[in-house]
Structures are given as structure tokens and as C-alpha cells.
Amino acid sequence: MDFDEDKIDDYTLALLYLVTHDRHEGFGARAWKGFDWDTMNRLHEKGYLLNPVGTAKSVGMSEEGFLRDRELFERYFARKATVEPLPKLTVEARKRWGQIPEQDRIVFLDNVWCGECHTGASMQLCEGKISGRLLVLSGTCKKCGGKVARVIEPEE
Ligand SMILES: [Zn+2]
After folding, report:
1. If you measure from the C-alpha of residue 120 to the centroid of ligand 1, how many angstroms do you get, rounded to a whole number?
2. What is d(CA 143, CA 41) in angstroms, rounded to the nearest whole number?
3. How many domains does the chain have?
4. Are residues 94 and 56 in the same domain?
5. Judgement on whether residues 21 and 72 belong to the same structural domain of the protein
6. What is the distance between the alpha carbons of residues 125 and 147, in angstroms, rounded to a whole number?
7. 29 exposed, middle or buried (CB, 10 Å; 0-12, 13-18, 19+)?
8. What is the model's pTM?
């Protein structure tokens, strides 16, 4: 089997984060070394690990190694908050919003002023309500995450 050793090195280094201990800021850390020997030796050659040869059950990790270890761990394994919550619209707001043609709804959401970005932006719709005769939509700017709102007047 032909495999990408650099990729294995990166994933192994990332997994080492789970077995890292004795972290000393600026001076690396130690990690249990129960991983594939060839990989551990390559990580040593790359400067991330100290020499893994020896009877100790753990291996020293350079400061550079620890920082990359932590970065890769986050990159590969952090649970990302990508699930967008469904917008909460009041019954009346949902009715009014539903009466607007879909194309127009997209245009409304894609043309919101963001005070943080100081520019037009797209809104991630979070809430909607009727205020007087107006449909008031609020949500977050897709660029910066700041709060944005959009007021839509009734068509007459
Ligand atoms: Zn913004």
C-alpha cells in the first residue's frame, strides 16, 4: 500500500495531544509514545519530538512540536459549530415572510447593512416578528457574526 507518510505524521502528532503531559510553557511537553515507531522517528527527524529511543514510556516534545500538536488537534478534531439553528419567527411573521416570493426573500437577506463591517452584508436569519405594520427580521452578519436587522414594509 502506498500511503502518505506526512499525513500519518500529522495525524499521529495530533493524536499525541491526547497523551501529552508535563507541559511547560516555552519548553515543550512530554507525551506517551505508544505509537508506530517509524512515525515517531520521522516526527523526531522533523524536530517535533526528542529522540524516542529509550526505555522511558514517554518522549519529550519540543516547544515547536507541542504547538503544532495542539494546532493539528484542533484542526482535525474540534467539533465545529456549523449547525445553524432554525430561525424563530412568530406565527404572524412566518406568515408574512412566507408570502414574499423566495427570490425577494434572498435579496432581502443578502442586502443588510452591517454596522460592524460598515458595508452591505448577508444576514443569517435568527428571529422575526411583526411590529406594527412592519416585519422585523434580526440575525447575524455572515461575515463578522455581528448583530444585524432588516425591516420590511408591507406591500400595498
Ligand atoms: Zn458584519
Report:
1. 8
2. 43
3. 2
4. no
5. yes
6. 10
7. buried
8. 0.51
How do residues 107-127 score in pLDDT, each as one tens digit?
999 999 999 999 999 999 999
Give the span between the Cα atoms of 12 and 109, in whole angstroms: 43
- Predicted pLDDT at 55: 87
* Whether residue 47 has pLDDT greater than 90: yes
Grid coordinates of 28: 515543550
CATH number at 68 reads 1.10.10
Q: What is the pLDDT of residues 50-68, one digit of tens each?
A: 998 888 899 999 999 999 9
- 82 band by pLDDT with thresholds 50, 70 and 90: low
Q: Measured in angstroms, how far is the CA atom of residue 70 from the centroid of ligand 1? A: 30
Report the pLDDT value the prediction gives residue 8, as an integer from 0 to 100. 95
Query: Where a domain ends, among 77, 103, 131?
Result: 77
Residue 144 CA to ligand 1 center (angstroms) comes to 4
Written as one letter, the residue type at 61 is M
115 alpha carbon to ligand 1 midpoint, in Å? 7
Go through the chain and tell me how many residues it has.
Answer: 156
Which residues span the domain enclosing 129? 88-152
Ligand 1 centroid to Cα of residue 119, in Å, is 7
CA 44 to centroid of ligand 1, rounded, Å: 44
